[in-house]
Design goal:
heterodimer, A: about 110 residues, mainly beta, four-stranded antiparallel β-sheet, 11 strands, about 0% helix, about 50% strand, B: about 110 residues, five-stranded antiparallel β-sheet, globular
């Protein structure tokens, strides 16, 4: 079974530039999460989708971050404009349902803002 | 709000047993995860507890006490490859949103 796919793996951009990350969850998984993990900290939830609907985006900095999952399968997370403090790993995860007892993570997209 | 607390760092000797504790304060609790994360890699699933008690899975066991807001991960027969960060995550609310702690960095030495 293929895991959660993310791209790009690494990205370096200058502050005020934009960046987009892509995620393809495990086939059939209805719930998709985007987490931000700053070095030395645990993952922080940015947004949770159930199919193509948003379940929770209360911690998403909406002035600069946006995410979509238009067809209920793959998803994109965009940052525009980027700030230095956005340097982090952006982890995508999926589960069979929001009450599923296993959440699978992708390898992450490493962002460095300089 | 939610609060997940776990020790920042622990060290242990190869072959020994170590217990990593996690306390949580959350409304509408409905499950607790443990994940292992090696440096530079994604978190990998270890266990999920929703009922009180101990669940054993090979060298790893996880315990939950809902009344105390407490969980622990027990690692037996430690190996060098167990050196990693161990993340506790409590799930809550009608949306079953998982909130992660900062992680416990475990260092296993010979």
């Amino acid at each position: 079974e293929a895991g959660v796919a993310q791209s790009p793996r690494y990205k370096i951009i200058e502050k005020r530039q934009s960046v987009a990350f892509w995620c393809n969850p495990i086939s059939g998984h209805a719930t998709l999460y985007w987490y931000q993990q700053i070095l030395g900290q645990g993952p922080k939830l940015l947004i949770q989708f159930q199919n193509n609907g948003v379940v929770d985006d209360s911690q998403l900095p909406k002035d600069r971050f946006s995410a979509e999952r238009l067809k209920g399968v793959d998803s994109t997370l965009k940052i525009q404009p980027a700030k230095l403090e956005d340097s982090a790993v952006y982890l995508c995860a999926s589960s069979g349902g929001f009450s599923g007892n296993t959440i699978y993570f992708g390898e992450g997209s490493w962002l460095t803002v300089v | 709000g939610q609060n997940i607390d776990q020790p920042t760092e622990m060290t242990a000797t190869e072959g020994a047993i170590v217990q990593i504790n996690c306390t949580y304060q959350t409304s509408g609790f409905n499950g607790l995860f443990w994940y292992q994360q090696h440096a530079g890699e994604a978190p990998t699933f270890l266990s999920y507890n929703v009922l009180d008690g101990l669940e054993e899975k090979g060298r790893f066991s996880s315990f939950l006490s809902r009344s105390k807001g407490y969980s622990y991960l027990l690692l037996k027969e430690l190996q060098m490859k167990d050196s990693a960060s161990y993340l506790c995550a409590a799930r809550s609310g009608g949306s079953y949103i998982p909130t992660f702690g900062r992680g416990t960095s475990l260092i296993v030495h010979p």
